[in-house]
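Escalated from tier 1: 2-amino-3-ketobutyric acid holo job.
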Amino acid sequence: MQNEKILVTGAGGQLGSVLVEALKNKFGEEAVIASDLNPIKNYKGIYEQLDVTNKNCLEYIVKKYKVTQIYHLAAILSAKGEQNPLQTWDINMKTLFNVLEVSVAEKISKVFYPSSIAVYGDMAPKMYTAQSDFLNPSTVYGISKAAGENWAQYYFLRYGLDVRSLRYPGVIGYQSLPGGGTTDYAVEIYHKAIKEEDFECYLKADAMLPMIYMDDTIRATLELMDAPKESISVRTSYNLHGMSFTPEQITASIQKYYPNFKVTYNPDFRQNIAENWPSSINDEQARQDWGWEPKYDLDAMTQDMLKHLKEQYI
Ligand code: AKB
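Tier 2 regenerated the structure:
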């Protein structure tokens, strides 16, 4: 553990910016190389500007720091991805192939690759969607993740590369803002409540989606990466669940603290994306294989979000 050198791509993103801090806490500041296409404001630690579509640059950084693990978070998400489908496919796949190829060539010991509940489409059951249910994604992001997790498995089977993956639900945290996702409303809504402003939701009041709190997300990621190799039975990507709620339910949870908080509904194209996704997820396999258990439900999350955001805004 002392000699790990961990490269994180997309380290300036919603998840990346929190994950690098958790990795620095666990392995030490010198062990973590945060990389992103754009500079990360006020970042403390080792940072490299990196466009992961450029294989030579990735290889250079891996060699320069003698990287032993890669967390490849850089990607275009569901809603933004629909604006330019071919470019989204190109970026999401090219970056993954570069990471997989460089990892094999440079004998990287472990790779983390995030997948998403977006891999499911309208042919999977909406409730308690199982690990092995049919994948017919409706967005280019979902298609790239479904392909990507199969490529991850291919590199494991063919080259023995230890790639591990989670199908993240919508991630909610106070530390950072999401960008380009369909589940982003569930972060924005808390910011609006704290600022005592009204919120216009782009999903319908009853659009139930699977979500997870940031603390649980980070813990799940580190637990999966720490699990003994023999216990990992899923080499595509593990289903992961935190909680499920609708915009109406998260509003009610916030109104316990902000009774005057008002939400109106004006569904746009993201409602169509949400309608093709599961409402809740069966993550039995993750529980069995490496002991996954979420800690936060909706009300516990609301309490924690509001507490931390209040500190940020005051
Ligand atoms: C998105 O909304 O695109 C992401 C996801 C569920 O993968 N948050």
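Residues 77-78, 116-118, 141, 168-170, 181-183 surround 2-amino-3-ketobutyric acid (CB under 6 Å).
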